[in-house]
Amino acid sequence: MPLSPRKLGAIAVGLALAGGAVACGPKSADSAAKGADAAPHQGGTLYVLNNQPQTNFDPARLYTSGGGNIPSLVFRTLTARNRANGAAGNKVVPDLATDTGEPSKDATVWTYHLKAGLKYQDGTAVTAADIKYGIERSFAAELSGGAPYLRDWLVGAKDYQGPYKDPKGLSAIETPDASTIVFHLDKSEGDFPLLATQTSFSPVPKAKDTGTKYADAPVSTGPYEVVSNQDNGEHMVLKRNPEWFAATDSQRKAYPDTIDVQGGLDQAVINQRLSAGVGKDADAITTDTNLGPAELAKTSADKSLSSRVGTGHFGYTDYLAFNPKVKPFDNIKVREAISYAIDRTTVVDADGGSSLAEPATTFLPDQAAFGYTPSDPFPAGANGNPAKAKELLKEAGYPNGLTVTLAHTTDKNGEEGPEVATAIQDALKKAGITVKLDGMEHNAYQDKVYSVKTEPGLFLAGWGADWPAGGPFLGPIFDGRQIVKDGYNFNSAQLNDPSVNSEIDSINKLTDLSAAAKRWGALGQKIDAQALTVPLVHPVYKRLYGKDIRNIVISDWTGVLDADLVAVK
To answer: What phi-psi label fits residue 67: left (phi over 0), alpha (psi between -120 and 50 degrees) or beta?
Structure first.
């Protein structure tokens, strides 16, 4: 389940720094501070100060290569995100493979060939069988935590329990020779090259597999190897891998000699240390800690600090979710009325202000890779249209207004928290809608709103991208075949529209990602018009980095300062 970057930076955190790069749709091409733009050089130690530890540092257990790209310093995959600023970073490129994959005509079979000269840190050769084994071990229950797509996509994989229980492996993955791997899918998947960037596609030599202890000393194919891993990722130290060669890897630069990653730090302490920039902290970055409104105000007033703050956009949407199975939300007029009544200006203010949130009128994030097309099916301006909302309520049979309950978390300063809930309550009151607030602790909230059995009629939610495309954004939320009745269900509208399902299948057959994006955009507009959600904001992220940090590059794919490219003074 994708989590908000404001909650868990280790999955996919939105960030951009002032190096002319922002994540998921740059708003400008302003250059960074001169220091950040200075020519990078090799040497030194890069310090990473994080709130979240790098737990379960095993390619099978990592959901993506996010977390500030720390995993990709060690684990290479068949394909990779392009290490480039802004929108150029949304491109998928070869990594271990010679290209991004050879699809069959219907995109149900994908073939990859490995580059020559690939080695592990001990000098042994990387083989296709190692990649197959690495994927298979991600199916083991004791190594759970990674992305679930392959279980659904590979032929005959739904009941597979991993190589520890079934050493025969997955017949859907073939390795006809040491440098070729072939995947057989249950259905057409044009996004397969994007999926192949995830860490489960990292090779693991069977002879070096230590099961649940593998995270302590994983075998590296990247420019760095793990020297120590204390307390399950609380403190990790990486040093150069002598068997990594730039000739086989165009994406990683490996400037620092050592990378020291510290997790479990208080967020306020992280920002204080980066702000002061004393000693080692001048060579430090964070990949999961944002500046809050008060911190941002102080930082903005100091030119020396503001030059080290950037603005980033990750592919994420905060929204108001409806359950049409619960009255009165079964009436589209009621849902439309609420859509018109929302005052996005007050929601933005509740989310920290315009520096930390941008108003959203589409469920898809506002960037081309997702197929974003500017639209607003219920145009209400910046402050809502209570008159139009009252008109629709009257048509719905509620001339005197109505009372509804809005579920939210008790998390302070969160997109699903009381500040945003109160802003919505105030806006709907102007339209004659009385909103009763139902706040609950975060875990209890998640269990309630993502269960078909207990899902309320109206609640706050958010969704982020596993990769920059419309499929992983629209599919889990609106594909009726993904409704989960006995587990976490994200299709809150419980929409099971055959035309939507069919269009999803049709788009998935496309291997031309640009053509697919246009189709995702059109489908997004069709769904938005049904008022099944009310898009509220696309979050904005502000982060500090050390004064001696160089070569700042942030792609729109992850929105995180790229540790693969950063250098220290």
So the answer is: left
Instruction: For residues 348 and 442, give the distance between their C-alpha atoms in angstroms, rounded to a whole number.
Output: 21
Q: pLDDT tens-digit profile of 507-543?
A: 999 999 999 999 999 999 999 999 999 999 998 888 8
Q: Over the stretch 79-133, which tens digit does the pLDDT of each residue have?
A: 999 998 888 989 999 999 999 999 999 999 999 999 999 999 999 999 999 999 9
- Summarize pLDDT for 131-181 with one digit per residue, the tens: 999 999 999 999 988 888 999 999 999 999 999 999 999 999 999 999 999
The Cβ of residue 235 has, within 10 Å, a number of other Cβ atoms equal to 16
Nearest to 435 by CA among 449, 445, 421: 421
Distance CA 15, CA 541 (A): 5
Query: Could you give the CA distance from residue 265 to residue 314 in angstroms, rounded to a whole number?
Result: 23
pLDDT at 32: 37
Q: What is the DSSP letter of 81?
A: E
Tokens 């301006």 sit at which residue? Answer: 381
Cross-strand pairs, 567: 550
Fold of domain 34-261+543-568: D-Maltodextrin-Binding Protein; domain 2 (3.40.190)
Question: For residue 399, what are its two tokens?
Answer: 């001339």
Give the Cα separation of 216 and 555 in Å (integer). Answer: 29
Cis amide bond preceding 94, omega within 30: no
Domain 316-539 has CATH 3.90.1150.10: no
The pLDDT of residue 7 is 43
Q: Look-up: residue for tokens 């008060």?
A: 294
Cα-flanking dihedrals φ and ψ of residue 506, to 5°? Answer: -65, -45
**Is the CB of residue 183 less than 8 Å from the CB of residue 192?**
yes
16: helix, coil or strand? coil
pTM: 0.89
Closest CA to 441 of 412, 462, 399: 412
Burial class (CB in 10 A: 0-12, 13-18, 19+), 497: middle
What pLDDT, on the 0 to 100 scale, is given for residue 64?
67
Torsion, Cα 142 463 9 306, to 10 degrees, reads 170
pLDDT for res 542: 85
- Cα–Cα distance measured from residue 148 to residue 160, given in angstroms and rounded to the nearest whole number: 12
Please give the Cα distance from 438 to 277 (Å, whole number).
43
| DSSP string of 484-495, one letter each residue | -SSS----TT--
Question: Could you give the 3-state DSSP secondary structure of residue 447?
Answer: helix
Separation CA 464–CA 476 (nearest Å): 11
User: Domain spans of the chain?
Assistant: 34-261+543-568, 316-539
- Residues 127, 129, 133: CA angle, nearest 5 degrees: 125
Q: How far apart are CA 478 and CA 459, in angstroms?
A: 16
Beta-carbon count within 10 A of 306 CB: 15
